[in-house]
Amino acid sequence: MIVLDRVSKAYRATGGRRIILDNASATFEAGHNYGILGGNGAGKSTLIRLLAGSELPDRGTIRRRGRVSFPLGFGGTFHGALSGRENAAFLARIYGAPVRATLDFVADFAELGDYFTMPVNTYSAGMRARLAFAACLAIEFDIYLIDEVTEVGDQHFRRKCAAAFRARMATADIILASHNPQTLRQYCDRAALLAGGALSLYDDVSAALGRHHRMLQEAG
Amino acid sequence: MRLPGDQEQRERRSDPGRPASGSGAAGAPVASEPSNTADRDNAAERAAAAADFCRRAEALYYDGEPAAAVGLAQRAFELAPESAATVDFCAWLFSNSGCHGAAAAAYEKLLYLKPGWAAGHRHASGAYALVGDLDRAIHHALRASELEPHSLEFALHAGSLHIEAGRFHGALGCFARAVAIAPDDPAVLRPLSTAALGAGDHERAVETALRALRLAPEHAVNAHHATEVLLRCGRFDSAAELIAAALARNGADPIGFRLLSAAHMQAGRPEAALAAIDRAVALAPANAEYHQHRGNLLYRLAQFDEAAAAFAQAAQLEPDNPAPKRSQLTVLFDSGRFREALAVGGDLIRTAPDNEEYAQAVMTVLSRRFETLEGDYLVLGEKCAAPVRATPCPRLSAAATTQCRVILALIIRETRTRFGDSILGYGWALLEPIMHILMLSLVFAVLMHGRPPIGNQFFIFYYTGIIPYHIFVHTSSSMTYAVSANTALLQLPLVSTFDVIIARGLLELVTDIVVAAILLAGFTAAGLGGCPRDFAGVAAAVVAVWLFACGCGFVNAVVNAFAKSWDKIWAQLTRILYFCSGIFYVPAMMPDWIRNRLAWNPVLQAVDWFRASFFADYAPPWLDRVYLVGVAGLVLVVGLTLERGLRRCLFEPA
Question: Which residues form the domain of A189?
Answer without folding.
Answer: 2-69+175-219
